Amino acid sequence: MEPLPARDLRLTLDPKELGFETTAELEPLERLVGQDRALDAIEFAIAIDAPGFNAFALGDEGTGRRSAALAAMRRRAATEPRPDDWCYINNFDDPRRPRALRLPPGTGRRLASDLEGLITGLASELPRVLGSEAYQEQRRRLLERLEEQRKRFFERAEAEAERRDLAVLHGPQAIVLAPKRDGQLLTPAALAELPAEERKRLDDAREEVQDLFEEALRRFTEAAEQTQEALRELNRSTAKTTISYQLRSLRERYRELPQVLTFLEAAEKDLVHIIDRISILAEVDAEILTRTLATEEFQRRYAVNVLVARDGEGAPVVEEPNPTFGNLLGRIEHRVLQGVLTTDFTMIRAGALLRANGGYLLVDALEVLRRPLAWEALKRALKQGELRIEEPGAELGIVSTVSLEPEPIPLRLKVILLGSPLLYYLLAAQDPDFGQIFKVKADFAPTIPYSPEAVREYARFVATRCREESLPPFDASAVAAVVEYGARRAGDRTRLTARLSEIADLVREAGFRASHAGVDRVRREDVETAASARRRRSNRLEEELHRQIEQGILLAQTRGEVVGQATGLSVLALGDYSFAKPIRVTASVSMGTRGVVDIEREAELGGPIHSKAVLILGGYLSRRYGRDRPLVLTATLAFEQVYEAIEGDSASLAEVLALLSALSGLPLRQDLAITGSVNQAGEVQPVGSVTEKVEGFFHTCRIQGFTGTQGVVVPARNVRHLMLDPEVVAEAEAGRFSLYAVEAVDPAIELVFGRDAEEVHRAVGERFDAFVQAWQKLRAEGVPPSGMDREAERPRWAADRPGPDRPGPPPDAAG
């Protein structure tokens, strides 16, 4: 079989095909490369005005989801009007339930400033008005009239007391009537010496005069209450006149906003009520009034808490990097006042939902799910179309302090969530609300098709990065190197990676190196140096592996032939870097009935896909060799010097060949590494990371020395995925390293056995026949074969002669 030509090993782009000398000639890129499907979905989601049409942008990190979503939202937002401002104001009837105030954009801060000026003005004006001569004159007249009424009410009682020889004594608590004679009070002894008739006359007189005084007191009390109410009304009318005068300009300024006029009217009533409350015996204490109006509590009572004020033009675009419950919905803050936690409407703070109300919100889905209560709160707000700002503890019913219940605010916005494909499909399967709230799926592909248009957009992307970040322009050879790097990261010569963040980092590093070297443009060697440096920063463990191969610690063979041993390739993925190492795949066979035993699975190191692949090997053996004979086989497969978990089926071709070698007794070439998956029909299926696997064996051969016969057997369907380093391609062109593409097991047999496939199959068949004959002979002699010494350990099928109580093996049984 001929090795693959060098042109099939790597994509090489001719800079002359690009049609420009440097990226300075190119227009900036305005749309994300190759993501038309996802971008159209986002444009649709933000354009349609219907509930539930929020979007979920799914894709790998670095594919430009965030920047594309933000760019689309900003373009749309720039054409839309500014949404309204939102404020909270005091509910004077129930301060625990603040009222939401919706204002035209730009009005909130102005209203808050006007109210602050109003209260400041009233704090100085009210004490002055209530201490003015006009006010004091009205007050004096009311009090003088009350004094006149008092004299008039008590004159008759006092005159009657004088006529009845009773002295009027004004005690601290009551009026006392005492008998007198000749203007002198009678002592108790003198009173006792009076005749009984005289004492009775005095007692009767005292009772009658007492009644007169009580009647006078009652009438005076009524007059005092009337006067007090008149004084209160004077206070109220004076205060209302002053307040109304101060409010007149505000009412005129906000006459087009009935909700503001309603608030001003409520504030006016409350201010008058405050003045009335601090009146003491119908008298306003100027000092108390001044102190009251100067307190922070009084100032806050009439403040306007501006939660969202719209500045600039267009609708808001908000990105929330830390979507906690409070950061999304808003929060109610508290302060310690005399050792007690207190709050009021001025301590309500807006969250991302309210800041984005009337516009667009971008949130990372995984970050929302990580925050307690945030996901359910976000869903509830979007479903109900309103925002309720509340304490997080209220959600769980554990709030112990008195808090607020702000009036809900209507929501109208579009939300775009960012997340991985796995997260999207998990939410779609497990959350019944998800599909009703996020109806638009914007699927960002990890790779894009390689085409002249895609190459041109790649070049424009590089030009954009150079302009925006003040980097030197890239010449055509440098852009060609960037495109080749993109194909390698995609793992496919017919595609380019869509993870443009990696490409941007490469552009930045190459630009830095060119600038540091003092050249005016970035060349291919700058890009290749940057790519090599990025690899070097991550491949310490790969170099450690190469050291172990060089020292013979890791057993790797690149020469000779061995029976029952093939060279497989295992990929180690370490975050952003992956590399391959050679592994010895060994097989041993014997007569028995256990079939193919996977040592990795028995040791609980094999994953389910690897275990499935081994079972498929049994199916291949059964199909190829078990049609006319029972497979009396116990075979073990092992990956030597592998101590970590094994997953995947890419070693199944190597396992098949090792098994066939062990069965036939024919040796396998050790200078050919093997990768590929096998199905039961013997077809070789493609595997992942084929480039890394080829390069892994290439480095092993380089360490141990090239012989000119070494190479790797890969699935034919993987040829398009080869994007090998130029070093590997150069050795292949020189004939010192080769790659072979196979579509089935038989061509692979001919390569690694170095003989015709039928010869190998015949040798394997003869070995199976020998096993069957030996097993039947042992059974006939009554000697149980190994593993068959107890009836309880009989296999699922046996090679006994078929009978009514012992059926024969199924035709394709593999054990």
The percent range for helix content is: 40-55%
Through-space gap between termini = 34 Å
Count of β-strands: 32
Evaluate the radius of gyration: 48 Å
Number of helical runs?
28
Instruction: Indicate the multimeric state.
Output: single chain
**Adjacency order of strands in the biggest sheet:** 10-15-18-1-19
- What are the segments in which pLDDT stays under 50 over at least 5 consecutive residues? 787-815
- Could you say how many structural domains there are in total? 4
CATH class of the largest domain: Alpha Beta
The amount of beta strand, in percent, is 15-25%
Q: Which structural class do the helices and strands define?
A: alpha/beta
Structure description:
By secondary structure, the chain is an alpha/beta fold. It folds into 4 domains: 14-34 and 445-538, Helicase, Ruva Protein, domain 3, CATH 1.10.8; 81-105 and 310-426, 3-Layer(aba) Sandwich (Rossmann fold); 113-301, no CATH class; 545-775, Ribosomal Protein S5, domain 2 (2-Layer Sandwich). It has 28 helices and 32 strands. The strands form 12 sheets. A 5-stranded parallel beta sheet has the order 10-15-18-1-19. Strands 23-24-26-25 form a 4-stranded mixed beta sheet. A hairpin with a 4-residue loop joins strand 4 (166-170) and strand 5 (175-181). Mean pLDDT is 87; it is low at 787-815.
